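Minutes, project huddle
Topic: does the predicted pose make sense with zinc ion bound?
PN asked that the exact inputs be recorded in the minutes so nobody has to dig through chat later. Recorded below.
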Amino acid sequence: MKANLARMDVPLREIRYALATHYHIDHAGLAEELKREGVPLLVLDVQVDAIPIMKTWTKPEDNYVDITDEGNVIISFGQSRQLLSEIGIAGEILHTPGHSDHCVSLLLDDGSAFTGDLPPEAYAFDNPVALVTWRLLRARGANRVYPAHGPIRSIDAAPGS
Ligand SMILES: [Zn+2]
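Predicted holo structure (tokens), as shared on screen:
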């Protein structure tokens, strides 16, 4: 991550918060190490209970550093717009279950939605929770989707197209 930030010319100290869409190891595994580098962890209240469970899915060779409570900034969804505006981001954080119950998405006012591992709508026919989430995202103005594992696409484009 440090190498990627250096390549993009983003100093770590300019990152005001880290936000994990959900607490699975490939999405939040660096959180404690980021906090130690001075990046507070923004946690939505629905995510709190998922944090300690994460370590049960790791093996010693993963070198996972367990997330402590220290340096966590816990907020509700209703507080997200205000907090984001304080750091110059126009948008909100939404509860977007469908991959896990504690999944959240960052939705910017320009329609960009960072959806983590939310299954693509076209593949979610057997996942009513995800379908409700997609309806919410559309109703709130999402038009461009940034899934955690890519690629970026229009909300109406079929995945892979
Ligand atoms: Zn996941």
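Observations noted during the meeting:
- Residues 4 and 10 are 9 Å apart (CA to CA).
- The mean pLDDT is 95.
No decisions taken; revisit at the next huddle.
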